[in-house]
Amino acid sequence: MVRVAATVPGCVLSCASRVGTVAGRRRSWAWLAVASLILLHATTALFVKAQGTDARQDGTNPSLPSTPPHALVAEAAANELVALHHKGSYLRYRMETVNERGDQVRDVIESEDGTVARLILKDRKPLTPEQDKAEQQRLNDMIASPAAFAKHVKNTESEKSMADKIVPLMPDAMINTYTPGQPPSGRNGGAPEIVLDYKPNPKFVPPNTQAQALTGLQGRVWIDAKTHYVVRMEGTIFRPVNFGWGMLAHIYPGGKVEMNQTSVGDNRWIFTDFSMELSVRALMVKKLDIRSRATTSNYQKLAPMSYQDAIHLLLATPLPEH
After folding, report:
1. Domain ranges of the chain
2. Rounded CA separation 198/176 (Å)
3. What is the 3-state secondary structure (H, E, C) of the chain?
4. Of 34-38, 49-53, 106-110, which one has max mean pLDDT?
5. Is the dihedral angle over the CA atoms 99, 104, 109, 111 positive or is it negative?
6. Who has greater pLDDT, 25 or 315?
7. What is the reported pTM?
8. Mean pLDDT lowest among 55-59, 125-129, 290-294
9. Phi and psi for 59 in degrees, rounded to 5?
């Protein structure tokens, strides 16, 4: 997903849109609220990453950067948008999502045209012949109908478009504090890290509805000292967040988001796990409790290929037996 969309995959965002029994337009506002907070956590991580651009830290005795944070953030925000679209970098990996729809594992391929995925396990069990047939039919329909695939890609691009609007706001949106002496994330192979705490800037005035989410999250982030990529991020919704004065959506305090990332080489990073616990009320009607977790593994670098070739590769791969 910011790498919001890049760091936080579309399946997590679409999970939010399907939560609960609220249908139609009400559901879309739940998605807006949650997607905005997902963007917030990833872009907040970007901001604190930038503050550590010139820092050096051995894990216990850091030296703070002399460059003004705002200048670093502005530069890092521009770089982050480049990373979001990760042109010329293509991966294949497994993604497991656990949410209200159960436990699902997908084989994912990034193509030149967009990401495609095949469901390969459901609730820790192999697919039934009927489930696999339906999944194959769905993918074959995308090959036969570029319009169907274009619709799929449009959803992803809308998430990236939201990130393109939110990320440039980060230099003015957050206040960050170096917190030396903290334990390492334990997720970075012992490499030096920079640790920061973050909270919203009270002087920041959100210019649009999505940016309102930038007022409700605080937490801590661990940054790789050499590459300045986010290794780990923890966040808590510490106060209510309202969209449209609470008439469109309301996010209750106490929610949590957590993300861990890893490098797969060549300056390409991807999330290893992302979890979210939120309570949202959509259109003043129903409270939705959102609990989801997504993890990735088995990363492989791929040469550029069309989405049709990516689907053929997915379909040609035998399903796991367990």
Report:
1. 3-316
2. 4
3. CCHHHHHCCHHHHHHHHHCCCCCHHHHHHHHHHHHHHHHHHHHHHHHHHHHCCCCECCCCCCECCCCCHHHHHHHHHHHHHHHHHCCCCCEEEEEEEEECCEEEEEEEEECCCCEEEEEEEECCEECCHHHHHHHHHHHHHHHHCHHHHHHHHHHHHHHHHHHHHHHHHHHHHEEEEECCCCCCCCCCCCCCEEEEEEEECCCCCCCCCHHHHHHCEEEEEEEECCCCCEEEEEEEECCCEEECCCCCEEECCCCEEEEEEEECCCCCEEEEEEEEEEEEEECCCEEEEEEEEEEEEEEEECCCCCHHHHHHHHHHCCCCCC
4. 106-110
5. negative
6. 315
7. 0.77
8. 55-59
9. 100, -20
Residue 1: CB atoms within 10 A of its CB come to 27
Q: Tell me the per-residue pLDDT of 307-319, one tens digit each, with 9 for 90 and over.
A: 999 999 999 999 9
- % of the chain beyond a pLDDT of 90: 34
- Dihedral sign for Cα atoms in the order 124, 130, 131, 135: positive
Residue for token pair 């992803």: 156
Q: CA 199 to CA 40: how far, in whole Å?
A: 11
Tokens for 289, please give them.
């409790």
Which of 93-102, 110-119, 168-177, 246-255 has the lowest average pLDDT?
168-177
Q: Closest Cα partner for 292 from 16, 35, 106?
A: 16
Q: Considering only CA atoms, which of 75, 84, 35, 34 is closest in space to residue 51?
A: 75
CB 21 within 8 A of CB 148: no
46 contacts: CB under 8 Å, gap ≥ 6? 2, 73, 76, 77, 80, 167, 170, 230
